[in-house]
Amino acid sequence: MKIQVLGTLCAEVNGRSIVPTAGKPRQMLSLLALYPGRVVPVSTLMEELWGTKPPQSALATLQTYILQLRRRLGSAMGPDTPAKEVLATRHGGYVLAIPSDSVDVHAYERMVAEGRSAFEAGSDTVAADRFRQALMLWRGPALVDVRVGPVLKIEVMRLEESRLGTVERRIDADLRLGRHTELIPELTELTARYPQHEGLHSQAMVALYRSGRQASALEVYRRLRIRLIEGLGVEPSPRVQRLHQAMLVVDPQLDVVAGPRRSSTFDLYTA
Fold this sequence. Notes:
Number of helices: 12
Organism: Streptomyces cupreus
Number of strands: 6
GO molecular function: DNA binding
Distance between the termini: 42 Å
Keywords: DNA-binding, Transcription, Transcription regulation, Two-component regulatory system
Family: Belongs to the AfsR/DnrI/RedD regulatory family.
Largest sheet: 3 strands, antiparallel
Helix content: 55-70%
Strand order of the largest sheet: 1-2-3
Pfam families: BTAD (PF03704), Trans_reg_C (PF00486)
């Protein structure tokens, strides 16, 4: 079985889709898929499907959804593996008994962890590659075609935050590798999409500065400061102000040479 949640919901067994067409069964499958091999309590499933006020028939309806999904599984798997062994009943809940790497989100999180370890060890090329591979698993916003309830909403928010954080870490690795010029178009788009995100703006400033565009780097700071003051009533954080000041005085430590792991001023000013 292969399940994808990083984009549209896809779930296939032997090349056949088992994704339900109705909304609530799709929610149920999505939630079970996020926790492969782990019991999802009935109470959690019911909260996702009906919120804090489930109807009196909620338990019976949930059991019907489980039976419907098992029929889909059974049709796709054939007679050799009983569907109720894959979508199994456990005390107080249900479990999708499949390996975690059968679901794209878990493969994504494994690659991110590998990238983070490589980055901390100074293996910037490996780190950038792992982060890129992880991000390539995304085919759009998480569960973009699923109507999410309160439980899945939190999971989707967590995944989208993780995605943005992985983009930042990949850009950090690329900056340490001296790829500042080629990062400028991507960072221009990202700072426009996230106009108050200090980390992305700091990265854009560094990429521009190291590409010989000091005035453009300072303009990025100016626009960020205006947005933060007008939108939130706050000044940029001390770390961003330190980076700005370093650019004003043309601190030679802001320059970087591509190569093995080294202590860069980008790390110093944005730590």
